[in-house]
Every structure is written in C-alpha cells, then in structure tokens.
Amino acid sequence: EIVKGVNGLDKVVLREVRGSSAEVYLYGGHVTSWKNDHEEELLFLSNKAMFKPPKAIRGGIPICFPQFGSHGTLEQHGFARNRFWSIDTDPPPFPANISHNAFVDLILKPSEEDAKIWPHSYEFRLRVALGPGGDLMLTSRIRNTNNDGKAFSFTFAYHTYFLVSDISEVRVEGLETLDYLDNLQEKERFTEQGDAITFESEVDKIYLSTPSKIAIIDHEKKRTFVLRKDGLPDAVVWNPWDKKAKAMSDFGDDEYKHMLCVEAAVVEKPITLKPGEEWKGRLELSAVPSSYCSGQ
Ligand code: TA6
C-alpha cells in the first residue's frame, strides 16, 4: 500500500508472509529499506538523508540512469533518482518462473523538462519484489519509444548501500584478479590482486566484466550478502572513508564505518537501444548467515 513517508513523500511498503519487508519511495523509485524476517535492517540509510527533491536520498538503492558517473551534460548519476515515479498500472507480463510474493511495479517516463536535457523518449519500468526467502529483487526494463527512429545509449547502476557492522571487518569475494578502473586515479585501469577485498581507506573502483555473483561478508555480524545480477556486467565498489564522509552534508562523519556500496552496473560499455528495443537488468540480493557461506 502507498503511505506517507519522510517529509510526506509517498512510499510503498512491501511485506512478505514470513515477515521480511521493503520500502520504496515513489521519489526516485528508491528502495530505502529491506528487512529480513527478524526485522533487521539490511540496507544503509544515512541519518542525514534529506528526503527533499531534487536531492537524491542518501542510502538504500539509488537508481543511476541514464548515466552512471559525472561526465557530459547530465548531473552525476543521471536524473532517474531525482524524479517522481508512478505506479505502473499496466505492467507487461513477467516470466512466470520469477516467483515472488510481494511486489510493486513503478514506471518513469520523461517529462518535457527531461527531454530538454536528454532528448529521448523511453519507458523505464521497475519491479521491486520480495522473494519467498526474503530476497530483494529489482528488475529494470528500459524500452526506447522514440518515434523519430533514433537509437539512444545509456549507462546504469543499482547504487546499493549495504549496512555493515564495521567496514574494517568486511570482505568482498568474487572480484579477485579482475580489471578495474580506479576513480581515485583518473579512472586508470588496474588488475585486482588475488584474494578477497578488504577495506582500510577510501575505495572507488569500477570492476569490469564481473561474475553474476558477488559476496559481501560482514564478519562481525556473521552475515553474508549475496548479490546476483543479470544484464549488468560491471560492479562498482565504494566507501568514502573519513575525509569524503565529512565533505558530504547528507552523510554522518562516522557513517562510512557502517556502509559499503557494491553496485551492479553497466559502465564500461553503454547499452544502445534502437526504437522498440528493450534492455533488462536484474538484481537479486539475499542475506544469509555466514556460517555456511564463506568460501563458496
Ligand atoms: O558509486 C561511486 C560514486 O560514483 C562515487 O564516486 C561517489 O560520487 C558516489 O558515487 C556517490 O555519488 P552521489 O552523487 O550519490 O553523491
């Protein structure tokens, strides 16, 4: 159901029969909460998040479209996360094999204003769903509806903020030995070393051609987040650490200790759609006890 969230902004609350839940604001099509069946919050949301358009909400899962990053004329990470989405009352059928219990379909279409900065027409349909085990699933379907025959290209990310107990006790598995662009060194290309990634300073890396499964292990909480993705070849790993944290007005000075962004993305090779063509990008998150998950 749609209820009033922070600052009176509309949000949809999803509840799954076993008790897991999620919240999605129509502003930004933005998931701000995902709780397991013990009501434990799994996503980071800054205590200083603004919930005030046109600023994006700091935390949860910002949707970066039609651009990931800050280059060219668009604002950083595009504008989808700064727009009001609406409930999609007429979603195209989903393949029956995708089982979920609670879900909401949102849609974003360009406004007159948007067409001035990004002159294309599209339909961006987002389904947010809770699976039987409390998994959180986001499916984006973006269709080029230009009637001028023009194709368009875009980059994209689910800019997911995971809630962790202590960043210095977190490991990421699945990105070993891969190439990455280091955003802290003019996007120069490097190769990751051979074992799990750990964190002791600011990190802002775009890993290329990554596997469909990445594990984020919160040692202290004995919890592993498993990120599965489809249609999203790249993965961005970001923690601002102390200096950058202090420089963000909507982020607490110490909050970097309790978050890690691992973002399923399309960055290196933009997607190009001809009129009528559709792209699909799926993200599936689960949170499992680490006891039987490490090393998998
Ligand atoms: O995903 C990493 C990143 O591109 C960082 O460079 C940092 O800018 C972060 O996104 C947050 O961007 P935002 O526009 O949400 O403040």
TrEMBL record:
* Swiss-Prot/TrEMBL keywords: Isomerase
An example of a Gene Ontology BP annotation on this entry?
carbohydrate metabolic process
Q: What is a single molecular function from GO for this protein?
A: glucose-6-phosphate 1-epimerase activity
Instruction: Tell me the domain of life.
Output: Eukaryota
Q: Name one GO cellular component term.
A: cytoplasm
Under Enzyme Commission nomenclature, its number is 5.1.3.15
Q: Quote the catalytic activity from the record.
A: alpha-D-glucose 6-phosphate = beta-D-glucose 6-phosphate
Name the family the entry cites: Belongs to the glucose-6-phosphate 1-epimerase family.
What name does the UniProt record give this protein? glucose-6-phosphate 1-epimerase
Residues shown, of full length: 9 to 304 of 399
